[in-house]
Amino acid sequence: MNLSTDAWIPIVWTEGKSGIVSLCEAFERGPEILDLAVRPHERIALMRLLICIAQAALDGPTDYDDWKDCRLKIAPAALDYLKRWRAAFELLGDGPRFLQVKGEGQLGTMELDKLGFVDADMTTLFDQDVELGRQRNLEWVALRLVAYQSFAAGGMVGGSIQKDGRLQPQKGKNGPCRDSSAFHAFIRRENLASTLHTNMLTKEAISNLKSLVWGTPMWEAKATKLRQLQSTDHLTRSYLGRLAPLSRAVWLNGDGATALNANGLLYPSYADEGIREPTTSVRVVKNRDGQEQRVLLSAIDGDNIKKPWRELHALTVKRIHDNGVGGPLALRNLDDDAAFDLWVGAVVTRQAKVEDTVESTYPVPKGMLFESTQRAYEVGVRHAETWERRLRHAIAIYRLAMETNEASEERLEGRFQRLKRSERQRLAGISNRAYSNYWTVIEHRLELLNRFALEPIPRRNGKVQYRETEWGKHVCRCADNSYERACPHETPRQIRAYALGLKALFGAPAEQAEVETEKEAEA
């Protein structure tokens, strides 16, 4: 099977029908293809591969003007490139293989299901019927191989290698896209051809990153042995080299069910050397010591998964600061006052396990690329987060009142403050369901948040009045409704506890949530 000419990429045509295309067809018929039809991690890996081929074929674009002029050059250049490099895109055979190399040392053997992150000890997120050792068709293998190389898990890889005079297990690092469960973002256009063009970066933009060079794709490397590839920095520390990585030394066996597996190339992470993927975002946070540090924008929020819209203000930061803080580099291709669709996705991992995937497409309103709008949007999100904390506290007060039969609001708050950490965590855990319901309901009216970010916030006596905005009213209703759903109030005891929790939710004075949000915004 040759990936350049044989169909393996699931897509949706512009008329709505599903299909499957080769790499050549993806470029040749790009204007007829509405979008890819794949899972979030597969989309990220496929988009990177297609962009890599297009930019390697053009050896550019050089700068913004070159980018604007290259739109119609992409397809013919990519088709010519794929023809010249056809041998590098073979999935099997005795010669070069696509994203495959034989590893060093004593090689391990893995079932092909693991290319799709299917394992007997893992979640059934990607396969509801785990049956290891089954045969897989080559189209399935090709798609999963691309995603696997981008999102390979760090830790024990399989096989062993001679070290310090004895055999030791091989350990690998995360694939470059798995770093910190980071959000990856792509600008989405009316068809695949336009989407690819909009997300291509210029050599000038890459040079401004300072941590990356332009480089070449892995399949253009003259070296054929893993040891030779490992000594080639332009593969692991370059833009094109990291777009289609070789994180694991995979070599498909002829049985259609297994592959040899060993450690591949080591790709430095953001924490290691400040190298981040251009589709990710970097923000500044304060650690426990109060010191500022730069981190990748992640889908993990403590023990919970964060929806991308809550970070849209950080995902749309167009200007990349000298310290690397900013959003996806492709935003540089947009006008400041542009409206556009932004696809955001992430793979949520805990150590070596994939827990979940996240993806959403957001219609970003005109004006969102301005810093003032992003700050206003962030204030709106913080306002909702303030009410979420108040909701958690109110439910905890309700539960404590039910357990202790305490009728005094003051004594109940005192009891709560004296609780041990384990008891507070227990009460907080009870509110997890209401917490999820709260954010789900809020998400149904995100157009109100967009409006909140674009319109002036009312003031009275010099103070902002969040709850007089449509977004503020919506957030308050969602907190009230979630509290009501979480706290039964039918018996006299329940009614009394419900009233005490309700006081904690709305507080005194009534503007307390606004005051808390203002403090967060100032911080």
What does this entry show, briefly?
The protein has helices at 23-28, 40-58, 64-69, 74-84, 138-151, 192-199, 203-209, 226-230, 233-236, 239-243, 270-273, 312-315, 371-404, 409-418, 421-430, 432-442, 446-454, 470-486, 492-506, 512-522; strands at residues 9-13, 18-21, 33-36, 108-111, 155-163, 166-172, 184-188, 248-252, 258-263, 282-286, 292-296, 300-301, 304-305, 340-350, 353-364, 459-460, 463-464. The chain is of the alpha+beta class. The radius of gyration is 26 Å and the shape is globular.
Strand order of the largest sheet: 2-1-3
DSSP E strands, number: 17
Q: Note the main sheet.
A: 3 strands, antiparallel
Low confidence ranges: none
End-to-end Cα distance, whole Å, is 56 Å
**Count of helical segments?**
20
| Quaternary status | single chain
Q: Percent range for helical residues? A: 40-55%
Rg is 26 Å
Shape: globular
Mean pLDDT: 89
Strand content: 15-25%
Structural class: alpha+beta
